[in-house]
Amino acid sequence: MSESTGATAPKPSSSVKLVLLGEAAVGKKCSLPTRTIKFEIWDTAGQERFASLAPMYYRNAQSALVVYDLTKPTSLTKAKHWVAELQRQASPGIVIALVGNKLDLASDFNSSSEGGLGGGSESDGDGLNTEDEENSGDARKVSTAEARSYAEEEGLLFFETSAKTGTNVCEVFTAIANAIPESTLKGTRGPGGAGQSGLGGRGDDTSRVSLTGPRRDAGAKEGCAC
Amino acid sequence: MESLSETTWDVLISGTGLQQSLLALALSRSGKKVLHVDKNGFYGGPDAAFSLQEAEDWVKTVENDTLTSSLFCNVSITSTPQPDQATRSSDSARLAVSRAYCLSLSPQLLYSRSALLPILVSSKVFRQLEFQAVGSWWIYNPLKAVPADASSPIEHSNSSSERTEEAEEHRRREERPPKDRRGELRKVPNGREDIFKDSTIDLKSKRSLMKFLRFVADYESQPDVWESQASSSFSEFLASRFNLPLPLQTPLLALTMTPDTPVETTTGFALPRIARHLRSIGALGPGFGAIIPKWGGGAEISQVACRAGAVGGGVYMLGNNVEAVNLKTENETHTSKRDGGESCEGLAEVQLQNGDKIKTKWIVGSDYDLPALKATSGFGKEISSTRSISVVSSPLPSLFPTITEGAPLAAGAIVVFPPGSLSTETKDVPGEMPPVYLVAHPSNTGECPDGQCVLYASVSAESSRGHTLLDQAIENLLESVDDESTPKVLYQIRYTQTSASSSSDKVQEPEAPPPASSALENVLLFPPPSLDLVFDDSILERVRTFWRMIVGEGGDEGDEGEFMVFEDREGLGVDLSDDE
């Protein structure tokens, strides 16, 4: 992900930890708009299979992507479980985005994607489609309305995406980036902004020791790390 | 997804303590099928870190678990009644929410020359860890014993910029009506320059100290000086060889972090440790030589290592106990003749608590993570340490002065109470008393909220006497710091931890290969975690040995690659399209 921002992209000034939960087959590599935010994406590495996620996973995550498969209602139930888990375990100010994936399998996909489905908010009328989904080749089992109303209740960002076609994937990240309060964004390197514990404490560089060399080299050497 | 029983596992690792987790990391690129379970619902086993709620659960678990209770006993939690809102006390005087704490069973410090650090780097997991510097070593000095020195306290700073600050602080202290202090803290000189500046040491003693420091910097090449006294008292060695009187021995003994009495602390134990301390200073930055992982020490490393195991395809299950192990199962003749010449012919059958019955070639665990397997692991004689973890109502800023210019903020301090400084009973002979160690972690370790501090206390003494000493040490420390009012202990976990004496109390001998009794040749057992307050590098030798046994000797270095040397993973789990 960080690679794809390309060599010409400006150096990120802030780093945001984003945790990824839910259905595994989610998205594609996407070229982030070259905002000056670098997403440090942590997937669950399968540790969620037996509810064995380590606390370090949630720690200081400023954002989370909870993904369900809109062709599988059970996956939304699971997603709700992860949202609850995030609310319990993660930093209080975490920005959570609920994402319904596999939009390409929904009958309303073509029309909506051509229309440039931005912000995930244009496919409101889907509730209507659920009745005749089989006939129309629509595999959608979770209506946009249902998922959105849940997202609104819990104060989550909401999107429907297609990892296959890339539809809306970048929009998700942009929306997350915009939703993270400026105050919790801290420089990826260098001093400053330290002392305050709480959200985004990873920026607390004044006490950080680099293992890869004397302190003055730290920035240069770690800069290329993903 | 395949069920656990349908898979033929190469390795079942039981327990997510530091040792097992590092093995999981070592195996993470081996292509072996690894099932990693822990009977606890949390990572880290005996090296875990807890929120207050988790600590409470842990205490209950230990009380009911016969295996774990062989490692931990006399476990209890006390927490002082919380001041009610009406008293208008500050936030630091109150316990915060449970999750604001991360109290570690493994707060060991790592010297910058520890063999673990290059491994964390070469295995690439260091990127998920954050390390912080351990600042000062302090010695508690009872004032009754040396009233003459009271006129020149603490001020042995090694940074001029900070010197004025400290002097200022000192002056303020003088202006206040004298508190009835029982003692004060003195900073252990951080190298030769500090010793020169130290006004409390006379010239003759300075010369003796310098002579010793020059010797220890290169002690390996001068066996004639010390080898004959390797297994006798270090204190005696310092007195006879270097003419160092007891008061000057104290800081040197403090640097060894010896759990033992001065009489029992041998020259062969002490020299390498002092050398390690001195040689580590500056290696990772100016003015410090030891570091700790943020967010709970060893617990954090174990989580990161397990995550690497999971990224490599290992399957992780918490809260799943190994209930029974049946080593005599059918011979899998088809699979036994693979290249790599695996020594195991058969598969063990393991009954897990969740009902799964799995087959595996290797079983790795420890006496406290596996049901009794008839043969005991037989690691050295039993030793134990009385310990407490305290949350105190002050950040104790005076313990964490600026290390030196350009150094990171200190995130740890060691306070040593030398034998005799806490003597409560007249019959106590200082030379026969164990030292007490308090390791202070401020809030920037992520272990407690701002305004508070965590004290990890330990002493090599039986429980009741041990806690008397620890409580007194904590009380004296809190009284000696220059706060407006004496800070309070808000919360405390007490326990006794048992281990086996390791190789580290002998002269640096290479670790013997692990005991692999013939009946249990596919079962690899780790010893209990070391009680050392410094990370025990010998762990790594055993991890390496087990790793090599599991990946197969093979004769050539080709297949298994180099131990813990991995390439960066493409995108580090970032490729979202990866369907697992």
TrEMBL record, chain A:
This is Uncharacterized protein. InterPro entries: P-loop_NTPase, Small_GTP-bd, Small_GTPase. Residues 189-201 have a biased composition (Gly residues). Residues 123-136 have a biased composition (Acidic residues). Pfam families: Ras. The keyword Hydrolase does not apply. PROSITE patterns: RAB (PS51419), RAS (PS51421). Residues 110-146, 183-226 are annotated as: Disordered.
Automatic annotation (TrEMBL), chain B:
Residues 149-188, 500-520 are annotated as: Disordered. This is Rab proteins geranylgeranyltransferase. GO terms for cellular component: cytosol; nucleus; Rab-protein geranylgeranyltransferase complex. Belongs to the Rab GDI family. Gene3D superfamilies: FAD/NAD(P)-binding domain, Guanine Nucleotide Dissociation Inhibitor, domain 1, Guanine Nucleotide Dissociation Inhibitor, domain 2. GO terms for molecular function: GDP-dissociation inhibitor activity. PANTHER family: CHM, RAB ESCORT PROTEIN 1, RAB GDP-DISSOCIATION INHIBITOR.
